[in-house]
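Annotated sample (chain length 220).
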Amino acid sequence: MNEPISIALADDNYIYRVGFKRELKKIEANIKLLFEAENGEELIEKLKSQRPDVVLTDMLMPVIDGVDATRVIKRDYPSLIVVGLSEINDNPYMNDFIEAGGNSYLSKESLHVDFVKALEDLILTGYHFNNVFTKEKVEGILQKNGRKLILRDGKRFSEKEVLVMRLISQHKTINRMAEELNMSVESIKKYKASLHNKLQVKKDSEIMAYAIKMGYIDMD
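Output written by the structure step:
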């Protein structure tokens, strides 16, 4: 992971958050904690102004729990990666979390063991599977809801690039994109050029097709 990975942590246990930050400093990887929240409501509010690469959320929290927070996050930011956390290995709300769009599940006890590997998988493919959050389990639950598992292909995009991808899919003009994203026309052109370069394509329609295929936008 050459580029830094930003994460957000939502957990109502203050002691756990302190311990997590202490352990994070020991990890020899380019990972930074962008912000922390003590419940799902605070997490959702902070995401309006700060966008991490990965969200870690406790499954059971007051006000808004991790499952309901994931539903809101996936509705508003479909490409944002969300990882469920719990003190138990196989949480009874696992199926609900997967249906909500969760990308992985880690027990708090094992977090320090495979955390870096989990982040690598999540950034590259959009998912991290383990002995409780298995590929087969995720596929089965998604299929019941008429959806399919889509793994990313290792390409990493910035938040702005994803936003531009979505507006391209809506056939917005560059001027309209600039207006909606509150950016200059030149900045929009830069992000479009970056997308064309990363995907090695020449047409906007090819960017749109890629975004749909890889799950960055939902055309349903």
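Annotation: The mean pLDDT is 90.
Annotation: The first helix runs from residue 14 to 26.
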